[in-house]
Amino acid sequence: MYYLIGKFLIRLLIGIIFGIFTARLVPIFTANIRENSTNINNFQKFPNNPNYNKWLRNNGVSKIKIPLDILRYSEQKYLLESQYLYNTVSVLCVILVRNEKNAEAAQATWGKGCNDVELVKLNKEQRKIRMPVKQNKENSTWSLLCKSLMKISNKYQWVLIVNDNTFALVENLRLLTAPLDYTRNYYLGHPVQFWSINYNTGLAGYVLSQGTIKELQKKLSNDSCVTEITYLNQEDFYIGKLLSTLNIFPQDTRDSLGLTTFHSYNWYQEFFSSANYYKMSIYPVVCCSSQSITFQATEADKMYMYYYLLYQLQVFHDGNLGNRPASTPIPEEQVWQSFLRERGITKDYVSAQEYYKIWEDLVHDPVEFLKELRDKKVDYR
Question: Are residues 14 and 130 both part of a single domain?
């Protein structure tokens, strides 16, 4: 009896505490939403973003919506908007490599959306140093990036520079940049201010137009890449400082609703962010644009997960083509026989023990077997 009363009182107490907490929490969220909604109306929008549809029309292109069921499973062929932009807006992706596994994952996933990928391999010892310590100039991050920028061909309209733990939706970058004149000077990303310099933080990646690259190449030389004082892991600050001497400054890249497109952190930090995360940001940060361009994936395995969620996993609202059984070129009962023939075994029948032994020999070393699978080039698209 006393046990039941005690249990009831505990539940009642938890309910009261939860109710008080919820009542306190709801006004906080409501206040934040109202504050953000009020501020959004006063934002200075990125001026060229709404011109995308106009740009398409000027290029004689019209869009129609095709159901995913038909797009994926029918035999009809369509030119996707993303493919048209890939062919029309060239993007070179420069990845600053501190962790080779991250770089490999980036190339196997989101890097496929780039017209070309260039890896700038940084010194391994730099990974262990997080403070901006003065280092050997020739091996500094800025010097290595600077030398890479000097060699960039003018066949690329845009250059995206990111760290190896960044995930980029290059299709959305093209959506942003397509209406822009790439021969002019553009410097796009997530603008912050440090030491009175406005620059785009490398945590979110940044984009340089062909015009900006040409201005940098005029300003720089192989010698000037190492003559200035540089600091480890501060190439983003230094390139912003250099561009400011050319009167090239960061621009507001938020979408037409004032939502952020270049993100410096992973999604958990973005959704549940603290004001301290973005205390250096020039523009108010409101998460998150449906046309987001970059965010941090943090690790290689998460890049594969994000790639699956963003590029492969699809929700079908109608249609029935995808529900039809796939045609099998080999009858199901002959699959195992085909497997044996591939290994030079022509028997019409093998026992379960013999079949198991064949697989055991094939996967005698699970670690080596997994390594072979990883080394195989797989198209994740």
Answer: no
Between strands 191-194 and 158-163, the pairing is unpaired
pLDDT at 291 over 70: yes
| Alpha carbon distances (Å) from 379 to 69, 302, 311, 313 | 21, 17, 12, 15
Token representation of residue 46: 């990125």
Structure tokens of 268? 């958990």
- Gap between the Cα atoms of 381 and 83, Å rounded: 13
- Is the Cβ–Cβ distance between 234 and 132 less than 8 Å? yes
Same domain, 83 and 184: yes
- Residue 196 region by backbone torsions, left for phi larger than 0, else alpha for psi between -120 and 50, else beta: left
Q: Are residues 29 and 53 in the same domain?
A: no
Q: What are φ and ψ of residue 88, in 5° steps?
A: -100, -35
List the domain range (segments joined by +) for residue 370. Answer: 333-375
- Contact 154/199 with Cβ under 8 angstroms? no
Structure tokens at 57: 């029309």
What is the DSSP-derived secondary structure letter of residue 312?
Answer: I
How many domains does the chain contain in total? Answer: 3
Q: How open is the CA angle 320-321-326, to the nearest 5 degrees?
A: 125
Residue 220's SS3 state is: coil
Identify whether residues 257 and 157 lie together within a single domain: yes
Question: CA 324, CA 328: separation in Å to the nearest integer?
Answer: 12
Distance CA 187, CA 19 (A): 49
pLDDT score at 331: 67
Distance from C-alpha of 279 to C-alpha of 140, rounded to nearest angstrom: 27
Give me the DSSP letters along 176-203: HHTTS-TTS--EES-EEEETTEEEE-TT
What is the spatial distance between Cα 204 and Cα 253, in angstroms, rounded to a whole number? 12
- CA pair distance 187, 344, nearest whole angstrom: 59
- How far, in Å, CA of 211 to CA of 185, rounded? 5
pLDDT tens, 52-100? 888 888 888 888 888 887 888 788 888 888 899 999 999 999 999 989 9
Are residue 143 and residue 259 in the same domain, yes or no?
Answer: yes
